[in-house]
Amino acid sequence: MKGLKTGMILAVGVLAFSSAEADIVLQDCNGCTTAQVKALAPNCAQGYAYVSDLISQNLYKLCFNWDVDDGKRPIRRYKNYIWLRPEDNAQQTWQAYEDIYLNNGHKMAADVSVRVDIAPRVQMHGDNGRLNAFDTIGATANNDAVINFLNTTYFTSANVNGSKLPASPALATAFANLLNHFQVTTPLITTNPNFPVTIVVTFSDGSRRSYSFNYAVQQYKAVPGTARDGHGNLIPENTSMASNGGSTETYGFDGSGPSYDQSNLESLLRRFGAQITGGSGGFVTCSWDGAKNSLTCEVHEF
Question: Is residue 24 classed as helix, strand or coil in its secondary structure?
Answer without folding.
Answer: strand
